[in-house]
Fold these 2 entries.
Entry 1:
Amino acid sequence: MREQRIQGIGVSPGIVIGEARVHARRRLMVRPRALAVDQVDAELRHFERAVEKSRRGILRVSTQVRRRLGADSANIFEAHLLILDDPMLTGRARELISKEKLNADFALLTAMSEIQRAFSDVKDEFFRQRLDDLEDVGRRLIDQIQSGRSHKARSQPTGPHILVADDLSPSEAACLDTTRVIGLITEKGSQTSHTAILCRSVGVPAIVGVENVLEQIKQGEVCILDGNSGLILVEPDPSTMLEYSQLRRVFAGFQLELDQLTHEPATTLDGHRVELSANIELPTELEHLPKVGADGIGLFRSEYLFLAAETMPGEETQFREYRKAARAVHPRRVIIRTFDLGGDKQPGGMQFPHEANPFLGWRAIRVSLDRPAMFRTQLRAILRASVEGNVQLMFPMVSGVVELRRALDFLEMVKAELDAERLPWNRELKTGIMVEVPSAVLVADELARMVDFFSIGTNDLTQYTLAVDRNNHTVAHLYRSLHPAVLRSIRLTVEAARRAGIWVGLCGELAGDPAALMLLLGLGLDELSVSPVLLPEIKLLVRALRMEDCRTFTDRVMSLGDADSIQAACDEVLRGQFGDLPLWRPAAPQGDNS
Ligand code: PEP
Ligand code: MG
């Protein structure tokens, strides 16, 4: 078979070689079959085997989630086990097999539909969540019944593999078993989609934006996935294999060089100290932080606690997770961002309205303010964890003064509540906001007087400033964080922060782009918060730059009027200074977004 080369967008660095495991979301295909009397017992036995295999599968996932995310997160699987034994589901299916002589999968589907119909009018969120659980368990069981019977079932690699999917939601990504999934290839997604961000965080090389991926890559085919260049080589030739083994050695050598910097500060050659912190999503990433040498956590995307577990984490779970993060980086700070739910981050355990434009809709601080019970629980947990001394709090997607005032008033109320209960919290707790909405940039002077710090979220600031959906493949070429409008917004925000005497950082993906580094330093950001996997590389570059050069470069680049010219200037200076290093570069969108 001849080698096939497919170009996608490399969104998480690293080179891996492995078998493809193709995962397509299927419609359930279940057909009724009338059984002969003498087939009923065999069908019942087949059904019982499927139930037992499903039970073992649920227990396996539950153990993994418990290990990665803690006991509370694994509770959902306890519920799945109960559903599996529910007489309304499996009991009813047994009855339909033995009395109505229906085939097992159809009997199960019928039992599921009966339950769904009976409870379809119930609006209660908890109940609706149980219906989702029912669907989940039912699908698993039907899969088991069908694959147990099929002689033609495709073999699925059980060892390490490259996952190939049309799309993967952030919650699915959060549940990836990274001991087995060594790489990810998807059709949908973009550089700043949350799934891509998550892959970078957990160090899984990934490529997105591969058209018709499910047709191009077949189950079990051997692939080389080069997350650095975005290239996929399907069934590679021996010479390509050799070439990539050499490339892997080059990267491994570079990695060793980066490892030497773990305990070194991110200080420029002319003595300017930059805070270089890490963005984290999952508590498991905490283990890797000491190795990358981060100055703390600049962005803890707390909503992933919810997304990974699919159920809302309670106060105690959140408290323990926040405290764990605080202790992991102590005495350096951890900035916990309150839930940024909505948009593409919609956990199964919560109901979201159907919206035509979810990113412009019920998202982030808007959701928190509308769900006081949830918001209160989270703020209590953060405040309680703040006694560790290094916790800071941040609100996402703030768009103006009134919204921020409401959030801050709510925070004061929760503080008073803890005081009344004599529960301690840190009186010095610092509070900040993400600046990621253009209106926040324009009223940054007012906002800066209300908080202790700003952290600029260029992922959203780019999409909202340029009116380009960050997840929409069709307009991906228009998504340019180096657009002058975005850069001028950053400059306005930094200036407002300076006037108010507060510090300002940047935690969008732009902070991890080597080509943007001189510009960001020159703009005067106090802190950059990046994916842990990219942090050592950025530190190496900071240590080789002079602040004076960064300022001169920035003055020149800020006078350019279009994204292509700015990108070209950034690329050129990077090539000139660091062209010999095997750096990871986010794929630059090609376009004419002037
Ligand atoms: C951002 O928008 O830049 C950001 C850091 O937040 P998120 O990617 O989680 O939306
Ligand atoms: Mg954001």
Entry 2:
Amino acid sequence: MAIRIGDEAPNFTAETTDGTINLHEYLGDGWGILFSHPADYTPVCTTELGAFANRKAEFDQRNTKLIGLSVDSVESHHGWAKDIEETQGSALNYPLIGDEDHTVAELYDMIHPNELATLTVRSVFIIDPDKKVRLTLTYPASVGRNLDEVIRVLDALQLTSKFPVATPVNWTDGSDVIISNAINDDEANEKFPGFETIKPYLRKTKQPS
Ligand code: BEZ
């Protein structure tokens, strides 16, 4: 069964490069990103894992823990990690699940057999502090993910969780936002004085902070 936005993130306990991890305990009361890679010692995955490691401080700033997955063994991951450090300039600094029996991959519907028979596709799940899945992304093996987009959407999710706003097309941190239609003009005036009404259903304001 596919995981949908709003579902509770299924919990699991798995072996990782940082030892045995229970997902919900690992995430604690912060945000989390679970992402899968088709296989160890493959080129696109090597660049992706290195990029997540290089940008880990940006996830830390957002109170967000990373956890990757590949269907090879933890022992294989440790060997591959040396290549990641050598070629991408940063050592693995977050856990990588060894999902040889596909337990987690199946739980999260990460194997799409018409794309790859036994390997995972490139899945991303953003999980909020209530353990709700807030975003899913799925890429094929041949296309590496865009970490600017992962961070952009994480910022948007954290912002829209805190304030009654939504983010417009191509929003980036610091740009104007849309006032939620769940609040009326009186409430909007209190919360966002000076907001702009373009249409009654399209009201814009500076990004709150
Ligand atoms: C890659 O990471 O480059 C890759 C992994 C599995 C299948 C194809 C490509």
